[in-house]
Input
Amino acid sequence: MAKVLYLYGGWPGHYPYEVAAWMLNLLKELDYVVEESTDIFTLDRDLTSYDLIIIGWNNAVTTETLTSSQENHLLKAIESGTGLVGIHGAGAAFRSSLRYHWVLGGSFVEHPAGEAYPKPYMVNMIDSSHPVTQGVSDFEVRSEQYYMEVDPNIHVLAETTFDGDPMPWLKGHKSPVAWVRNWGDGRVFYHSIGHDTNNLSDPNIRLLTKQGIAWATRKQN
Output
């Protein structure tokens, strides 16, 4: 069975413990062995024995960062084949850690409609042939709509389009919602949904997340 380290917690405004309960249910369905941690110093050790690391950490300030030791251990594990998964606040976590966002593939910039505002927006699949998105249909979310800065070398799976409210100059602009990438021998999956649990019962979101987790997990011999 796959061995997972699930790091979550931090700023309570992203409901990390409620979202964690949802995520842990998905991991149970996948029959994964999970080690839970709410302490970022968990990353200050050899992480190469894990098949997957899930980041559910949420920052309160933009200056929060990982230490060089934590960055080194995390990237070493991923390069050796450990998968990395992040959702929503993982794209805003450790904002001062350039290497973390390099391997993740992107970074949160803003939610134009406002923080915690339940903005209705569509998530559109742009690659339905990938193992992560097979069977996933376009769906509506009512939550924070993330504007992301991303690495041009990620493989975008789904995106959203801004309607220009309240910033008319953004009308028609798009931002990735879900992507994958390879890093060394490891695989990385991220999506920006999950401010709270209100949208997570949608079967498309469940399937997208579950298949993303399975894809990113180190292949078992």
User: Anything to note?
Assistant: Residues 16-29 form the longest helix (14 residues). The chain has a mean pLDDT of 96. The helical segments are 16-29, 68-79, 98-104, 203-216. Residues 123 and 160 are 5 Å apart (CA to CA).
